[in-house]
Amino acid sequence: MAELDAAAKERNRKLTSLMQRVADNRDERALGELFDHFVPLLRAYSLSQQPGAMLVADELAQEVMIRVWEKAHTYKSEKAAVSTWVFTLARNYRIDQIRKNARFMTNIDPESIWEDMSAPEDENPFELAQRSRAEDKVREGLEQLPHEQRQVLARVYLQGKSHSEAAEELGLPLGTVKSRVRLALQKMELLVERQQL
Amino acid sequence: MKSNKTMANYHPAAEQLTAWSAGSLPLSDALCITAHMENCKICRNSVQRLNQVGGDLLESQAPAPASAALREQMFKRLHEKQAEPAVVQPESTHTESANAPEWLPKCLQQFGIENVDALPWQKQSGSISTYQLARDGNKRVELLRIKPGGSLSKHTHIGEETTLILTGSFSDEQGVYRAGDFMQLDERHQHSTQATSDCECICLTVQEGPVQFTGPFMRLLNPYLKWRFNAAA
């Protein structure tokens, strides 16, 4: 557990310094190293939603890496780990593609929805200090999740399934899927007490 | 700084934020959540951590190695792009209007709303009117406007209805809801709503069907409301 943790931290440090070299020095060798780390993961991400679609996977991986290069100056290491940032780029790319292929049947533009909306007030030192603690909790929690909770999260995050699609595929009632998501969030100390209707 | 705005009391459910973060929500619902989050630090914080779940899951996958050609191809594309004359790209593709009302979330500016009074509102009752912003499959995204003190008699909803208060406030049997509050109601909820008497209330709503009245007399209107909802499609 502690070793895994140390390995993850070491990886984060390395990725962050590569990102810095890309942003500050426009260093193509650093981008190459990021490519070697992320492209196999991005291809796996794409293949988990569309198994066997190799060209789609190559295209997503390549486009996301180009965005990493182009948007490098907007990456803030104090706000999110590189992997988190790359995940959001891949997610946004996927949403764009689904919309272009007209699966959504809508005139809503997704660009302004998943845009960075953080306000200056989110960046005070107290919160930034808390962030790294919270980050550890999420990682540790995720590693310890029971199989069935992790499976649901993987469907939602990697395969891009809605809760009801996940429920249908796993042969579970929708309520069970939702409660597994909640239990997982609880374990990662991610469930903020909130009032809702 | 948006700190002058009141803090929301009602938030999207945790699993809704999860789906937002994963990118697996219909755009209409995602739009409502973003509109809420623009003024809700609590939910922005949660989403930042939820994004990390995505990042950690991305890292934990079995890698699917690429061919060596892909690396070359990416650098080739990158160099081609850099050789092109730089196109000055606006930060966003839609023009943000300076005249938009102060309470209008940024993500709704894509609909080009400036003067609320000039919109072609559709009158639904004496005190309620709606304006359709977008459609998303079988869902409709609308602005709902309630006159000061206006009310909607006892009703329920077909399918799910999401409501975010943009300005003003209203109340029902359970309590008072203010700007920023996010609510998701379905056919299990039955309530009557009333806008606060001193100001009008404008909400963002996503609905799968029209409201259904449950009172003894008002329910006679339901077939008509259904017909009108579908006719507007």
Key terms:
heterodimer, A: 197 residues, 0% strand, B: alpha+beta, six-stranded antiparallel sheet, five-stranded antiparallel sheet, 28% helix
Mean pLDDT across residues of chain B:
84
Category by helix and strand content of chain A: mainly alpha
The total beta strand count of chain A reads 0
Overall morphology of chain B:
elongated
- Helix fraction bin of chain B: 25-40%
Largest interface (CB < 8 Å): A-B, 83 and 75 residues
Mean pLDDT of chain A: 89
Q: Provide the gyration radius of chain B in Å.
A: 22 Å
Assign an overall shape of chain A: globular
Strands side by side in the biggest sheet of chain B: 1-2-3-10-5-8
Low-confidence stretches of chain A: none
> Level of helix content of chain A?
55-70%
Outline the secondary-structure elements.
The complex is a heterodimer of chains A (197) and B (233).
Chain A: H1 2-25, H2 28-49, H3 54-71, H4 82-100, H5 125-144, H6 147-157, H7 163-170, H8 174-187
Chain B: H1 14-22, H2 27-37, H3 41-60, H4 68-83, E1 122-123, E2 128-136, E3 139-146, E4 151-157, E5 161-167, E6 169-171, E7 176-178, E8 182-185, E9 191-195, E10 201-207, E11 211-213, H5 222-231
How would you characterize this protein structure?
The complex is a heterodimer of chains A (197) and B (233). Chain A has 197 residues and is mostly helical. Chain A has helices at residues 2-25, 28-49, 54-71, 82-100, 125-144, 147-157, 163-170, 174-187. The longest helix of chain A has 24 residues, at 2-25. The mean pLDDT of chain A is 89. With 233 residues, chain B is α+β, with helices and mostly antiparallel strands. Helix content of chain B is 28%, strand content 25%. Chain B is built from 5 helices and 11 strands, in the order ααααβββββββββββα. Chain B has helices spanning 14-22, 27-37, 41-60, 68-83, 222-231, and strands at residues 122-123, 128-136, 139-146, 151-157, 161-167, 169-171, 176-178, 182-185, 191-195, 201-207, 211-213. In chain B, strand 6 (169-171) and strand 7 form a beta hairpin. In chain B, helix 1 (14-22) crosses helix 3 (41-60). Chain B is elongated. The chains are: A mainly alpha (197), B alpha+beta (233). Chains A and B meet through helix 2, helix 3, helix 4, helix 5 and helix 6 of A and helix 1, helix 2, helix 3, helix 4 and strand 2 of B.
